[in-house]
Amino acid sequence: MEPRPPSPPDVRAMTAELLALDRTPGARHAAPVALRSVRAVEAAETVYGEVADPADLAELFEVAAWILFDAERHGPSYRLNRRALALIRRLPEDERSIELLVLSVLSMQQAHLMRPRASLRTSAAVLARRDLPPRVAALFHVRQARAYAQLGARARALRSLDAAREMSADGPSKRDPAWSWWFDRAELDGHHGLVLADLGDAEGAAALLHAAVASDGGPAYRALFAADLARVLARAGAWRETDALLSALAESAPRMGSVRALNSLRQAVAAVGEGRRVPRALRGTAEDLAGLLARGTSPRAAR
Of 16, 101, 285, 294, which residue is 20 to 30 A from 239 by alpha carbon distance? Predict the structure, then answer.
């Protein structure tokens, strides 16, 4: 007897499950579920053809792609974002809002992989559009700023940050899409800090990352800002502050769901190991954290 073909999947339920996993335990735990969900859809498509409304399927692929990006699984993340874009561009113009979300993740991924010119092309193409909602425009100015910073274009990076601040000054607007809820003051502060770190302004970067870390709530991936703060402090040789932060992060590292954050912690530990005149207590803290990361939180290699 041949096995029964899979039933058509409930794509909306899959997406809701992935969003819940991403928000609390984070991408490290959600990534296997994301990959299983995509495989289930692909298996059902071989039997039934198109198994869901293109908008619903695009959202599933977008959410899975974001999770895989935060899990440092860049190959499948990129492919799923491209599949999401292809589906979105089949929709009527007034149903394509999520296209901008996909492009924002692609631009961030390109910068994360040190491809600033590609990131700049992606963000510039969006900013060239007319009548962008303010929060969306601010988001892409931040993406643009990070790319400029990586290219060493300090003045342009700072102008892009100024534009993002100005567009965010009045808070959310009625024109902002629902998906942009997470781009708040803490998110802006965190990314502003990362841009300043790329520009070599460790003091300014630390101040803004402190502000982002101090903000209550937020999704699991925002552990990245605390990890990046530790990395910035360690590279600047701010040993006392580094020790205090790494000691605090040692308690939360086993629960940290963002693989990007875990990798930033590893970079902070490495900076301590390479530092000069590092206090003995901090070396002990860094060694303990390195052992903890190696035992229980080893991410899969980026692809």
Answer: 294
